[in-house]
Design brief:
- The structure is a single chain.
- This protein is an all-alpha fold and about 400 residues long.
- About 85% of the residues lie in helices and about 0% in strands.
- The protein has 17 helices and no strands.
- It has helices at about 1-10, 10-50, 55-70, 70-80, 85-100, 105-120, 125-135, 140-165, 175-195, 210-215, 220-250, 255-285, 285-305, 310-335, 340-370, 375-385, 385-405.
- Helix 7 (about 125-135) packs across helix 8 (about 140-165) and helix 8 (about 140-165) runs antiparallel to helix 12.
- The chain is globular and about 55 Å long.
Length: about 400
């Protein structure tokens, strides 16, 4: 009630703060997620340039994701200390700098170092941009706002990989990397100018919050199952996307076609996040996860024998199922964690899932080197199915939480 009164009293000023906070967070999310998924376009280029095996390709992707996962929590702490806008802007420049560094032509070690720099820069976006949105919007509106912010990342995933692929048909790939860097510098400047001061620093913890509430006692089991599903879901998604371009190349796809294919997957993924968020509210977490993960496994297996055009037609549907689960999982975190611990819970959730995205391409790459990409994709589909029994355990834990509260 007090929050509603405060919002009404703030009026247009509060609305302006919300819009600027949302614009900053969504813009940063689009750029950073776009950068991350440009790597899927670049990996075949770097493989051909350096003569890499699939395990080395997976290692490159994992170095980026590993650096991004490792620095999630430290990045959030830096944002609290030095200001969200400054740290987010610096991280954006570092993420952008990975591309010209990769173009410097220092072989595999130089490329690996460039991707570590990019991953460190990319680590700031999720914890800091999420916190900016959470500070600008209160109560139930915060969940809806975070959902909008989450969706914005998919816009970058749709736009930047395709734009980069088509740009490289007109100019050399090294020149295209400098264009990506220029975009990052412009985005960093916009972050510094647009982030409202009111949301650039963390809220002070309210009085009366107990130590038990801070720790979130009584909900750890449910959060643990949720995190386990998220780790497997992200790991299989990262493995699928890393080696999808190679599967399509074997079917006869050229570079622009691969860019279109990724756009189709990410377009379906964006739709999946919106559709499955509503579906999860109607069907519940268990039924939605069973539906999306089961469908993901079946569609990946169906993609393997299809010719190129039929496979391209299937990709948007795969994207819906592939990304839909993440929307449901992310939206379930607030149900299992007290409000005072949600920022840290999101940081832990991001660290675990992004870490899985870092490790899985290496494992799938080793398997791909030994057995071939089709069998690596089959393994991806099999591991997707391992989330189903975990969803049952999560549902039981949530049932205890609801009845216990």
């Amino acid at each position: 009630m007090a929050d509603s009164t405060a919002e009404a009293a703030a009026g247009p000023q509060a609305a302006g703060t919300e819009r600027r906070a949302m614009g900053t967070a969504c813009g940063a999310h689009a750029v950073h997620d776009g950068y991350t998924d440009v790597l899927y376009v670049m990996l075949p280029v770097w493989q051909a340039e350096l003569g890499l095996g699939y395990a080395a390709v997976g290692m490159l992707r994992s170095l980026y994701s590993g650096a991004m996962a490792t620095f999630q929590i430290p990045a959030g702490a830096l944002g609290d200390r030095f200001g969200s806008a400054l740290v987010l802007a610096i991280g954006t420049v570092l993420a952008a700098a990975a591309f010209p560094l990769a173009a410097a032509g220092a072989g595999f070690p130089g490329l690996a170092a460039a991707l570590v720099v990019g991953g460190i820069g990319a680590s700031v976006q999720h914890p800091i941009a999420s916190a900016i949105v959470a500070r600008a919007y209160r109560g139930a509106r915060s969940r809806a706002a975070i959902g909008t912010y989450n969706f914005a990342g998919d816009l970058g995933k749709m736009a930047l990989p395709a734009a980069t692929a088509f740009l490289m048909t007109a100019i050399a790939w090294r020149s295209a990397m400098w264009a990506l860097f220029a975009l990052g510098v412009a985005a960093a400047a916009a972050i510094l100018l647009a982030t409202p001061r009111a949301v650039a620093a963390p809220r002070v913890r309210r009085r009366g919050e107990t130590a038990a509430a801070e720790r979130g006692e009584g909900h750890r089991g449910g959060f643990g199952w949720l995190l386990a599903i998220g780790i497997l879901d992200t790991g299989t998604r990262s493995g699928f996307l890393t080696f999808l371009p190679f599967l399509l190349t074997a079917k006869g796809a050229d570079l622009p076609t691969i860019g279109v294919a990724l756009t189709l997957v990410f377009s379906g993924g964006a739709a999946g996040k919106l559709v499955c968020a509503h579906l999860g509210a109607r069907l519940g977490v268990l039924r939605t996860v069973l539906l999306t993960e089961g469908l993901t496994a079946l569609l990946i297996l169906a993609l393997l024998p299809l010719p190129l055009l039929a496979g391209l037609a299937l990709l948007p549907i795969i994207g819906v199922a592939l990304n839909g689960t993440s929307s449901v999982l992310y939206g379930t975190v607030p149900e299992l964690v007290p409000e005072s611990r949600r920022t840290r819970a999101f940081s832990i959730f991001y660290t675990g899932t992004i870490g899985a995205g870092a490790a899985s391409p290496i494992l799938y790459g080793l398997f791909g080197d030994a057995a071939g990409i089709p069998w690596a994709m089959t393994l991806v589909a099999a591991i997707v199915l391992s989330t189903l029994p975990l969803a049952v355990l999560l549902n039981r834990a949530m049932g205890r939480h609801i009845t216990g509260s």
